[in-house]
């Protein structure tokens, strides 16, 4: 691995670990957010998964240790809200929550789509918690994710965004069911729904250009 590859991998090391960690929890039907917010220690589970990670991704593991000195430091960060609370997450640009009832990759196929919820930073933690919990309970969409406190050089303003995914953009009844659930949470302003098809094509909103498929 040359120096450029090492720098690039170093920048992505925590994101790779977090994805692995969440995937392992998903397989165990466990929610990181619920674990952390319960206040109960989960050090044994953390180290079990971290050890497995070191076997699967030894180079990334070494980079993580060089950045954070020890697994205990990463565990401490997570317990304090890293990867759980948007305003306390600085290592990754997104926090994701999949429904335990679907495949963890279900939100990444062309058939899926998402409602786009833009919020000021001081509102995002509370709204995210409600969306996250309903996603885990299976009463909202198949997945959701939220932008975090980590600076995003591509952001147009300081607002945060939550994506709430549904499995099939053609299933209008389900798409609108999720929209009604979002209203119950308090998201009453008109929001847009974007199909993954447009996202995969790299199509984004611009002046005079509409990329949302539904609006409600």
UniProtKB/TrEMBL annotation:
<dbReference type="Pfam" id="PF08939">
    <property type="entry name" value="Bles03"/>
</dbReference>
<comment type="similarity">
    <text>Belongs to the UPF0696 family.</text>
</comment>
<dbReference type="InterPro" id="IPR015034">
    <property type="entry name" value="Bles03"/>
</dbReference>
<dbReference type="InterPro" id="IPR023398">
    <property type="entry name" value="TIF_eIF4e-like"/>
</dbReference>
<protein>
    <recommendedName>
        <fullName>DUF1917 domain-containing protein</fullName>
    </recommendedName>
</protein>
